Batch of 2 targets.
Target 1
Amino acid sequence: MSKIKPSKGAPYARILGVGGYRPVRVVPNEVILEKIDSSDEWIRSRSGIATRHWANDEETVAAMSIEASGKAIADAGISAEQVGAVIVSTVSHFSQTPAVATEIADKLGTDKAAAFDISAGCAGFGYGLTLAKGMVVEGSAEYVLVIGVERLSDLTDLEDRATAFLFGDGAGAVVVGPSQEPHIGPTVWGSEGDKAGTIKQTVPWDRFRTGDLSTLPLDSEGNVKFPAITQEGQAVFRWAVFEMAKVAQQALDAAGITPDDLDVFIPHQANMRIIDSMVKTLKLPEHVTVARDVETTGNTSAASIPLAMERLLATGEAKSGDTALVIGFGAGLVYAATVVTLP
Amino acid sequence: MAATQEEIVAGLAEIVNEIAGIPVEDVQLDKSFTDDLDVDSLSMVEVVVAAEERFDVKIPDDDVKNLKTVGDATDYILKHQG
């Protein structure tokens, strides 16, 4: 038997840079109210959302990713040629193949970086970060770009008063690279497929192939509705607040961090009510800065954590070197939580 | 020991007071959580989870929507408490 030479990785990994892109168009609740019977007060009290960004035709999944990634690469102080792998988490790239990651890797100017998409809903950033950490430590890439990007406005039923106001568009990216000290803790992650129906797409794409549109949902004008994301609000809220608080605590314990050691909490920006209840359930001390980007960005699924991270650092609410707990959770159901040092 | 109807109402009143800021004396058997006590659907989930802990009872998501009034919740807990 021949001896195979192993790859040589870094002792540890860390997030070296972060970047975000928010579409130019800001959409206030008044616009949402054109199609649903609700009120600004109702939307704010149930979600904490005042405005969100919706992408225009030029702000594609790839274009937004490239903008966010360029900033993350610059923030990390590396060049695009040094990026060895590009991981994109999205549920709103509408070409089944090829993966959007390859176009992004090419347009950024990487040197034929490995590139692929993953599907892990609102936990996608944590899943990508976990893969990236493993790749850096294992040695298959020195620097890995992790992108969370969504155009959820394309998957929003604007006539559904329970979800029309929730979703937004945008891209967030981080560069993960080598470190002599551990700066990304153990990931606590998993899936609960028995709850797959709790957050889902209204109809699968292949329902459009049969030519029989009679079984498809119609809008108020009788047109066939594009698939959209739908959810069971109370069930999601209960799972997110109470089950995910346990996962968040496990991630703290796994990293050997107490709430008192924590500087920043960046949960998936699903809904302000979920964020507030999680903070209460976790009994986070007053000094912990909590990301509340959902107010002006809406729920951007896989993009929400890096976008919130970028904003906290840009506004000075958090600083480089801070210890942050990040947790993503969503359709699957899937979740991923870990403790990181902010770039 | 299982809680009595009176104890359950008193417990629910404390929970609703803590979560939604409603005065405890307003929480009566005939009051609707949504219409009378201004407990919205998400706060209702918090009330249910707190009640589960306090009264050692499981209230699945599917049953939560049937708990319209304080009386509904009290009856449910009386019947299902451990």
Note: Chain A has two domains: 12-179, 188-196+228-341.
Target 2
Amino acid sequence: MAEWLAMGGHGFYIWGSYGVTALFMIVETILVIRHKRTLLQRLGRMMRMNSEVE
Amino acid sequence: MNLFKYSAPSIFYPLAGRLATGFAIAAVLLLAIGLYMSFFVAPTDYKQGEGYRIMFIHVPAAWMSMFIYLVMAAWAAAGMIWRTRLSSMMASALAPTGAMFTFIALWTGALWGKPMWGAWWVWDARLTSELILLFLYIGYMAMESAIDDPRRAARACGLLALVGVINIPIIYYSVKWWNTLHQGASIKMSESGGIESSMTEIMLWTMLIMTFACWFYTIAVALTRVRSIILERESKTVWVKEMLQQGEK
């Protein structure tokens, strides 16, 4: 396993590339999903507040 | 079937949701297959050993950075010409993902260049024009958030996107026009119309699968992001109110 991870001495560069790519893609996915969810909640709350006022 | 009805945000919104889910599942599957092939199927390179495996993420990211920019500029132009708000929203939804892939192309390129060329960065024609592409994406996003009125923002950003399109062929052909350190295209359309490549069959398939994975990922993320933009812009409309009452997820 360790030998495989070493990737013939290029391990740092390979895992540095794939790691950062995975990190960015996962973080972007989380941000986009969370942004939409919080937006829906906020709009829902605003609507309920407005309907109570009317 | 009248496709133009999908240009109405209220009709496009649920469709985009279903599409995003479908493409997300496809992206995860292709990514799993592509990664497995990248590490366990693709053979060791006779010259670069294992280091070349960075190629399976570097090249798709670079292709996506250019492809997304062209799609973004097309949507921006459509939004400007036909004044369709949804088109400009689509362009804004693509910009962050395009910027991400541009950064990843530069990052993985540096990590591949260090062991192979001995340098993280070189002011080489391709690297420099790719860096300019990153600034174009950031400029697009900055301008879009700086201008309050969506209509004026769509016009200004549309113009910037179109002006920036000239940079894409420069990136693509830079390796041919200038004597650059960056290698030439390994995958070309041969005269006989097929794909001609200096890579082994397996490497080519791995590359294509990773590219489709990144493409489907982009579609899923952009469609989800455009739904948020639609909600923000159309929060006062009746259809959004009705949807909220039904407790849309």
Note: Residues 11-53 of chain A form the longest helix (43 residues).
